[in-house]
Design brief:
Blueprint: H1 4-14, E1 19-25, H2 31-41, E2 47-51, H3 62-73, H4 78-91, E3 97-101, H5 103-109, H6 111-121, E4 125-128, H7 137-145, E5 149-150, E6 152-154, H8 160-169, E7 173-177, H9 191-204, E8 209-213, E9 229-232, H10 234-245, H11 250-265
Parallel strand pairs: 1-2, 1-9, 2-3, 3-4, 4-5, 6-7, 7-8, 8-9
Helix pairs in contact: 2-4, 2-11, 3-10, 4-6, 10-11
């Protein structure tokens, strides 16, 4: 049986479009509201990335940091995140969920205990930003035993030799960081240049799915739609912040934004 992440890519390919991956922070702005946002956007998002709030997020730009601080301030804990995933899976058991976070949280929780909780709550994949290859090899093997994808990060400066080694070792999905930046920065390179780097990665093993993330917005998403998948995070977190500031319903507004994003890649 295919991992639901692979199923989502397969479905998107059959529809001649990239998979849409959305990123929201668990517990933003409250546990209940973040669950409602996931339920609402799941009709348009192919894969849901859920960020684990962290107080020193080295890869995250200001929009995601703001979301994380709101969630932490409102008392989000690791077990609450697993509960959000579990509750979402009761609503839609087939929609893939990827947790994205930092290794310290996994280390503090205990690797084996963390993966057990991932498995029983319905997590299908993990991105651990500060656990690069080859340091992640043992943890990635543990993930594989639980049928959880460990998603490797690839950057524009990763050497060809290293790219080949990472992709050879990787599970079915990899994440290409479009540019040297934190999340949410304006695209510093052209979509053409991003796709050139992306194609170089795809050529190594065309059977493995590669998504592009960082700097993708409603304006840029349509220019990158030849990729297997596209990740939008900061634009969504920004919409939550804007909605709260204007005393509007973030669930409705984020749902509307994700609908627009989906229409751009159809």
């Amino acid at each position: 049986m295919l991992n639901p992440i692979s199923e989502a890519f397969k479905k998107a390919k059959n529809e001649n479009r990239p998979a849409l991956l959305t990123y929201t922070v668990a517990g933003d702005s409250t546990k209940r509201q973040s669950l409602e946002i996931l339920k609402s956007i799941s009709k348009n998002a192919d894969i849901l990335e859920i960020g684990v709030p962290h107080n020193t997020p080295v890869a995250d730009g200001s929009q995601i940091q703001t979301s994380s601080y709101r969630a932490i301030k409102n008392g989000i804990k690791t077990n609450s995140i697993f509960q959000i995933v579990k509750d979402f899976k009761k609503f839609n058991k087939n929609k893939p969920v990827i947790l994205m976070g930092y290794y310290n949280m996994i280390f503090q929780y205990n690797e084996n205990k963390f993966l057990h909780k991932c498995k029983i709550s319905g997590v299908n994949g993990l991105i651990v930003v500060d656990l690069p290859w080859p340091e992640n090899k043992n943890f990635a093997k543990k993930c594989k035993k639980k049928s959880i994808f460990f998603i490797q990060l690839l950057s524009p400066t990763t050497t060809n030799k290293r790219l080949n080694e990472i992709i050879k070792d990787s599970h079915q999905m990899n994440y290409f960081i479009s540019m040297l930046s934190t999340t949410g920065g304006k695209l510093k390179v052209s979509p053409k240049e991003i796709l050139k780097n992306y194609k170089k990665i795809k050529k190594i093993n065309p059977k493995k799915d590669v998504v592009i993330g960082f700097g993708i917005t409603e304006k840029t998403i349509g220019k990158l739609k030849s990729a297997d998948g596209l990740v939008v995070g900061s634009a969504i977190c920004k919409e939550i912040t804007r909605s709260l500031k204007n005393r509007q319903n973030p669930v409705t507004n984020v749902d509307r934004l994700v609908d627009k994003l989906k229409n751009k890649i159809r």
